[in-house]
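Lay summary

Proteins are chains of building blocks that fold into shapes. Our project writes down both the chain and a compact code for its shape. Here are two examples, one after the other.
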Amino acid sequence: MHSTPLITALVSLIGLTGVLAWRIREGRSAVTLKKIIMPPLGMDTGFCMFFVPAFRVPWIWGLGAFFIGAIIFAYPLLLTSDLHREDGVIMMKRSSAFFAVIIVLAVVRYLARGFFDRFLTIEQTGALFYLLAFGMILRWRLKLLLAWRALTTEPAFVAATPAEEAAD
């Protein structure tokens, strides 16, 4: 595979734009169990890349990338998003810094990728960043799941839950 810095930058900008647009759209609708668990489940299919030898990295590198994502890179997302009740439904509550955090994470990823591409193949770099992103998303979504469960098990909300789930 051959990638130029211009192509990498363009693809990264397109990806960032897509993520920001998706987050804006998702933030305008009620949060459901399905909306919380589907992104990590959808990302699970990415593990199939490791069937191809070119994407394989040593276990310790993979575990390191996963835990760096889960511990370090997830932390800003955990601080800048939470769930709350609004008009009988659960909504995402973001601080004004949420989108800045997303942009900074994308910039860090882009700059780090340029560094790692000097030592690893493009496929290995992609695999490591996939594991980092998966760790980040998984921890963030687990926090949202726990918050969602706490909000849906409160007595005042339990009666409204079946109607909300039927709307999905």
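And here is the second example, written the same way.
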Amino acid sequence: MRCFAGESALAADRLALALAPGLTPAGPEPLPSFFHGFAAYPHVVARGLATLADVTATRYFRYTPERLRDPVLSAQGGRLRAECFSACNGVYARLDLLGAGFDGGDIGFGTTNVDVGPALRQALSRVSPPVGAARALVAALPRPR
């Protein structure tokens, strides 16, 4: 069973992910730290993590939610990757967050599990895009004919 350093939380515009012991290029790390910085699009990060949490908790074959499972987080220098399998192992989901999606901070190297429990999932669902972001996205899309 994985042991997290605490519980992941979102408070005062700060997302603190509780990580399990991880593996880094320097070897096993009991308290890994892969990134400290700011997301350029926090609503995308929030929706992506919440979606991964939904996938890990769902059985697509004979749907029966089981205890929540946790996504794997890996830092690869130029990107953070969160990925998971559904509870039935029939569906795989991945969220790649490239360096350009962050406003500052350095991305390290390593792999671990991240706690995305019910409290964090609920908090992530309340993160919304900044005013004007939706209009900018819609304006950039081609108009249907």
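What can we say about the second shape? The domain at 9-140 is CATH 3.10.150 (DNA Polymerase III; Chain A, domain 2).
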